Amino acid sequence: MTANLQWTPDQRELADLELLLSGAFHPLTGFLGHDDLHEVEAHGALADGTPWPAPVTLRVPGAQAGDRITLLDPEGAALAVLTVTESGHDGLVAGPLEALGAVEHGPFARLRRSPDAVRKELAGRPTLAVTMRGPLDDLSTQEIIAVAEELDATVLLLALAYGEGGPALVRAALKAREKLPEGTLVVSVPLAPREDKEIDLELREHVATAYGAAEHLAGPEPVTLPGPPHRRGLVVFFTGLSGSGKSTIARGLRDALLELGGRTVTYLDGDVVRHLLSKGLTFSKSDRDLNIRRIGFVATEAARHGGLAICAPIAPYEATRAEVRESVESVGADFLLVHVSTPLEECERRDRKGLYAKARAGEIPEFTGVSDPYEEPDDADLVIDTTHISIEAAVSRVLDTLRSGGWVR
């Protein structure tokens, strides 16, 4: 039985979708199926022998052949419909794409022009395409000018604006245009980088060709200087059973940091978030995951701008904690996982809110530690058992970790 589904691709898939729809990934017209994917990974070509360097895939868990999937941008706007002709147990789907409208999400949408539109403006003139992943230095600018003069070509700056650094890269391209020959064009292309530099370069060649380039120059790779830890965003994420002491330690840490000064502190307690940001959610696994994702989103936004966020949910599931870590680190911030490992017996003995008693009586279903599992982290940066130490000592241990890591001075 076929179904009409809606799905929001992840950041990389969304970027690839945009390039498929615009024609920048010519000759591809859709996401790769298993045969094409195997041949690309093994031989750098599609199953029909057409050269293609990199996997371009979409995974939609549970989708079946015949399903129609409306692909949404992060704001919920429909971008395209995928009619599934191939699906696998790994969630990989393939099939024809039908565009539904122009891409409008994200910054500099006016500069995300299609190859057809750019080719029309170029009107057959020789074109030198420069793919940029970082700002152009003086040597690169001089080389571009020299090659453009030699070819009598129009310069096309393709700012490969993917991820958090995208807007800054587009601004760098617009600034570089001021030093280049009159008529230089700037186009924003959301091409996600590939780990293999040779494959990444070959993919950039394909995109440049799609935009009508007679010659392609790859700009210099960006130099990333993350800055000292005390100026970077940080999320201190406490996890542990109810009654373990995590909220009390988190509050103590917040107060200690406010007394020290020097950092903007955001405090996200699990119970408070439940009453406000996540009001109406149940304690089912899916709703618990959603609650943690919401906490992670707010914490990431605080850390994105150099703030320090303290979170204290139970966060019982490993996969969701990993999602939050990945979200935080994707914006260039740091993530510190603190496992408050106080044993269940001690947490239940305290039972300040009477929750364990209600859970044992069956009044609270899916209660972590009683009728629902707690997946202990094996990637915690700090482990604290509050059975035999004071809250003050526990707070000091966290604060000492922040000082030794350079996050607090």
Taking pLDDT < 50 over at least 5 consecutive residues as the criterion, the unreliable ranges are: none
- How big is the Rg? 26 Å
Report how far the terminal alpha carbons are from each other. Answer: 61 Å
Q: Provide the helix percentage.
A: 25-40%
- Category from helices, strands and their pairing: alpha/beta
> Strand order, biggest sheet?
13-14-12-15-16
Main sheet specs: 5 strands, parallel
Shape: globular
Q: How many distinct helices?
A: 13
Percent in strands: 15-25%
**Oligomeric nature of the chains:** single chain
Compressed to H and E, one letter per element, the order equals EHHEEEEEEHEHEHEHEEHEHHEHEHHEH
Mean pLDDT: 92
Q: Find the count of extended strands (DSSP E, 2+ residues).
A: 16
EC number: 2.7.1.25
Function: Catalyzes the synthesis of activated sulfate.
InterPro entries: APS, APS_kinase_dom, ATP-Sase_PUA-like_dom, P-loop_NTPase, PUA-like_sf, Sulf_AdTrans/APS_kinase
Keywords: ATP-binding, Kinase, Nucleotide-binding, Phosphoprotein, Transferase
Walk me through the topology.
Blueprint: E1 4-7, H1 11-22, H2 34-43, E2 58-59, E3 68-72, E4 78-83, E5 86-87, E6 92-94, E7 97-99, H3 115-122, E8 127-132, H4 138-151, E9 154-159, H5 166-177, E10 185-188, H6 197-210, E11 215-218, E12 234-239, H7 246-260, E13 265-269, H8 270-275, H9 285-304, E14 308-312, H10 318-330, E15 334-340, H11 344-350, H12 355-360, E16 382-384, H13 391-404
Parallel strand pairs: 1-3, 8-9, 8-11, 9-10, 12-14, 12-15, 13-14, 15-16
Antiparallel strand pairs: 2-6, 3-4, 4-7, 5-6
Enzyme class: transferase
Function: Catalyzes the synthesis of activated sulfate.
Domain ATP-sulfurylase PUA-like: 10-86
